[in-house]
Structures
1.
Amino acid sequence: MTKNQALLDLEIDRNVLADDETLAIVAQALRTCLRDGDKKTLRAFLDSQEPADIATILDTLEAAEALAAMRHVDLYEQAQIFGYLDPEYQIELSDLMGRRELARLMSAMSHDERVDLFKNLDPVAREAVLPGLAKAERDDLRKLASYPEDTAGSIMTSDYATLTPDMTAKEAIEALRNQALDAETVYQAYIIDEERQLVGVISLRDLIVARANARVRNLMDTNPVFIRAEADREEAAQIISRYDLIALPVINGGDKLVGIVTQDDAMDVQEQEATTDFHKVGTVSGLKANVRDASIFVLYRARIVWLVLLVFGNIFSGAGIAFFEDTIAAHLALLFFLPLLIASGGNAGAQSATLMVRALATGDVRMSDWASVLGREFATALLLGLTMAAAVSLIGVLRAGPDIALVVALSMVAIVLVGAMIGMSLPFVLSRLKLDPATASAPLVTSIADVTGVLIYFTIATQVLAMQAT
């Protein structure tokens, strides 16, 4: 047994993705195999791993090293591994390939992954690789690439299985057997007529349990769930999730079947949308690269706009404090409780906004639910405010006496209540205006709650302390 083989066998037993240290050991072992020309060990290791795991390992190598390692597996597995790599890394590897090698790889890729790669290539590379593809592949590539980004058509694949209504169950199973190598899935087959219009859908299970001479038209579901190619891709993901579909058929304006959106593509969409929403909640916009690979300028650009806007928004807090400077001058103890109260309102608002943004995104809450949600949130915020007021009242008495304690307690209830109402309502307002509810970010809600909290606190202080003085 060679040293390289011993290292790789150790990592196979320990799971190559256990931790960063383990991954580094495996990557170094692969580098050693490449340097020593130990093809046998390299092939044995790669053949023993899942494509997704190989992609994770290759991602830690230099692009030239990763490409050299990939060339030790067959073309079909290369295509699978390539599909798991980040788009930016795919482009790096593509730049190192010759035109013919890249064309062969793209021919072996699934239709949707092939078009994703094609869209990411620069125009010169696109024109260079097209002649290396078969005419049918070129036509399919151009058709899929023509759909606008963020539509269902942009994430669909044309690798689907079709049947005709007049087939028997036996003929249909044989047809699926012949299409299996090229189809993304054969567990669901789509029934089309002479004009390729979608007329039904049938599962492989239904065909297997049916009598051999039973007609597909009598077995199929004649009311299939579908989506139009121009619909939003997030809607496609939601439909797949709602109806627990393996794949969702996509039709064009003429009701012709043009592709399917598979469950794994829907999961990718949901992950991307969740990432985008998380970024918006943190007032980070336009960050398409991952944090590890993004440059300092990209990270700066994604964050600076909102931070500057929020700086100017917080000026209103300063203006509010200035407006009540006479009250503050007469009762300096009020300043001690200011950060505590303002932070409480912002925190309550941020919590409410996070809950509502998520609920609207998942469909748990709809615009028609606003009144009932408002009432429940009001009651919850009131209880939260009373509890927090009781907690700070003792501090108020010990620090500044009963008069200030009363002001702090009343302010806490009002500020938490208003902050929660702002946080809950803003996502609904944005949704009504056809804007993304995720724009109701925690920093934005906090800034609005801060200004409101300052006004509430010092207004209550002015009124209550004036009454106590008379």
2.
Amino acid sequence: MSAYKTIFFLGATGYLGSEFLLLLNREFPDLHIVALLRNVTQEREAQLRALYPNSSVVEGTLDDDAVIREQAAKADIVINCASSDHTPSVISTLAGLEINSKNNPRRPPLYLHVSGCGIISDNARGEPVEYVKEWSDIGLDLKECNRRNMHLDSDIPIVEAGSRKENPVRTIIYYPGQIYGIGEGIQKTTLWLRIFLDMTKKLGFAGTWGPGANTMNNIHVRDCASGLLLVLKAASEGKADEGPEGLYFSASMEPKKTYHEWTKVMGDYLFEKGIINQAGSRPLPNEVVDPLGEYGWSLLGGNLFVKPERLAKLGWEPVETKKTPILESLPSMIDAALQG
């Protein structure tokens, strides 16, 4: 990693981003992190430096095109853990990286983007199905995915940037499954848990898109962060697949749990704590699911079966996922989210 000096980081204080920075600091503390932060305060800067002392802050949001372009144009590496579906920030990043590549023709920059397995949803609408295709990341072609699925509007331009000959960018996209567990970084709990928890508290019961028979591979946040670091190390050594081949699923092959199973655990636990008035889980009413439209049905009502063969080639194993299964983790995750 000695050839690299700076990383422009989006999402540094988030759930996966801050977990990753802890690991990065243990192995590569000499890299300088420039983190994009909104609403900068001394407290937020101190939180970041507690994770990664060799860091500085540039204030801005994902909508600040000029800020993102400027930082991407001069960083050796850009890592985006902030949002899988904020296409404008991806376009800004790629524009800055194109300038970067033009200015450094012998050393194109590296872009490591965190997306999600929603790209391969079967849109089962929560219904049980007889067969679900299991997608490998080897031979994966994003243009073969259902174009109505999530993340593709951001991901396809990234692959195209990693495929061109003029002003090329080294691109890798990382696709986590259902991330869970209590993080050691700044944000302790995953976004999907906080969304479902907030919705459950407002409704008074836990629920699913349709009957909740759909499921996906899961991954503990520590394993997800370790896989991301492994990919970065491999890329720095010229050993990672990149461009059209640089698509990495990050997921365990541990038993999958349906949305009905884990929302039932959530409903039962919150009922026992007296926070809601109904135990178990049931299909959510139209007034909840309709506002999200096909976005919600694709992401929250589909099956997402993946096989992380590229990470396996690098020697990665989901150690924490095997030790702490998702259903066993849910009560402590809920407690942490409630306290937060």
